[in-house]
Each structure stands twice: as structure tokens, then as C-alpha cells.
Amino acid sequence: MIHDFFLTEGFFYAVRWLYGVLGNSYFLTILLVTLVLRLIQIYPDIQTRKTQRKQAELQPQIDQLKEKYANDPKKLNEEQSKLMKANGIGCLSGCLPMLLTLPLFFCFLAAFRFWGYEQTLKLTYETIVNEEQAQETFDSFRFGWIKNIWQPDSGFSPVITPSDKDVFSGKIKIHNLVLFHKGYTDLRGNEVSGEQIWNVFKENGLAEGEFQSADMKLLSTKESKDKYDEIMGKYDTGRNNGWFVLPILAAGFQFLAAWISQQQTKKTNPSAAAQTQSMNFMIYLFPIMSLWFCLTSTSAFALYWVLSSVLQIGTSFIINRIIDKKTVPAEIVQK
Prior knowledge:
Layout lengths: L5 H16 L4 H43 L4 H14 L9 H34 L1 H10 L38 H4 L1 E2 L5 E2 L1 H10 L3 E2 L8 E2 L3 H11 L12 H24 L1 H6 L6 H15 L2 H28 L9
Helix pairs in contact: 1-2, 1-4, 2-3, 2-4, 2-12, 4-5, 9-11, 9-12, 11-12
């Protein structure tokens, strides 16, 4: 994670720090992070909804312009831009939530992926040096029906990362992982340095290269893979890590959020809503994306995305109710 995109790196440090502060609780860490991020998005969300209502008030004039300049698209765009600008509506004002949501989505996707790498390496290290403590760590990975929160919530996903996947594939720059720069504090409160972990991996034929050098890497030879499978075999209970619950919930809540937004648009601006029926496929696009990412990412990320979607729906409902009560038709500037 060191030297990665600054937002991803910042998120990773934040969740890693919160995890220690909150008593090594994955659920509390994910819940708190989700709440904070949703609070950050509330202000632009409110501004966007106000803008949407202002656009609804302008719709009759927009319709007149479309009728007047039906054969002159360039002039129509110019007049619409003038009308919007005169009434304080920016061309990107309606896109602010999406502009915030998508970068957060991908940054957290990466941050949770690297957090999963670290947790897998940590479990491997503890299994070598102290199996009893390692079992406590592995038990902490359980979340409800999910056996390992660092694997996907899928009935087809292995409980333990296979020796030819992720960090053990040889494709990850191990020296960039925070684990090998900061170490970690185990569940018993003991400080473990990154150098300790690396030396144990090297002694057991899992790694090579000088500590914290660009040459350090986990081996992906047949011998190292066999050794890893032997070490981690005690946790291998087959390809049934979960039951697809979180990915389905993520897709369902995203669909509900999009549907509620669509219904709100129809309520506040029926004319505009009728003219954008061709864009209805968007109501299905993000739910499908959510399903795919949550099926192929860690259950920890899927849990974050479900909580985020629930909060999005809840805050949207509250914001709409407040704005509906307080909004007074604004004076429209004629152009």
C-alpha cells in the first residue's frame, strides 16, 4: 500500500488505525468508516437535491426553449445554458454525489483488497509460530454465515486464499505493504514487526529477498505453494465461504436507491422524467456492478457497501422529507 494512490493509501491507514482503536472489531471499524463517509457526502447531496427542485421550477421555460429551437440544437444549448446560469445552476451540480461516490467506491475497493492481503499474511505467520493464537485470529475472521471475511461471500469461494492467488501469485509488490513497514498488534496485544514476519517466511521457504528491499517477494514455486498449503490446510474447509447474501443485498439496496431517486424525479419534475426514459437502464447498471464487485471482492468490502447503501437510502429519505417541507418556490430569472 505504500506509494499507492494517496486517497487509497489514506483510507487504508485510516481503517487500519480504527481497527486497532476499536478493539480489533472489523464490524465496528467498517460501520464507523461508512458513517463518516456518508456524513461527508450529505452536504453535496443536499445541494444536488435543491438544484433538482430548481430545475423542476425551470422546466416550463426549458420546454418552451425546446419548442422554440427544435431545429437549432446549438442555439437551444446556448439558451438553456444561459437560463441555468442566470438561476444559479451549474452544469455539474447534479453530478456531485456520483463524482464523490465513484472515487470512494474504487478507493475502498482497493483499500479492502490490500487489508485482506495483510490479514492473510498475518494468519500465515501466526499459524507457523503459534497455532493456538492463529486459531483465535482465524475465528475473528468469521462474520455470521461467512467463515472468512477476507474472502468473498460466495458458496463457490474457498475459505482460505489459494496458494496461486493474490499475494501468493507473485504479482503483488510485497515491499509496499504497510505490514512490512509498520508490523501489527496481535489480538493479545503483542507488537509484531514486519521484519519478524519476513524472517519467518524466509526460514520456511515462502519468501526471498532482503527485508524492505524491492527484491523481497513471496515465492510462487511448486515447493513454496506446497509448503503454504501444508501450513494453511488446517483451515481449509472447501469452497463454501459464504452464501451470496452480501452481494445480493448490495445489488438489491443499490437498485432500491436508484428506484427511489427515479420516483423522486418523477414527483418533482414529471416533464423531465418523461423525457429521460431512455436512460432507465442506469437503474440496473450500478446494482449489477455492485453484485459483481461484491462477489469477487472480500466480504469486508461487501459489508461496507451494503451498509453504505442502507445509509444512502436512509439519508436520502430524510433529506427529501426536509426539503419537501422547507422548499419555497424560488423566483425564476427570465432569459
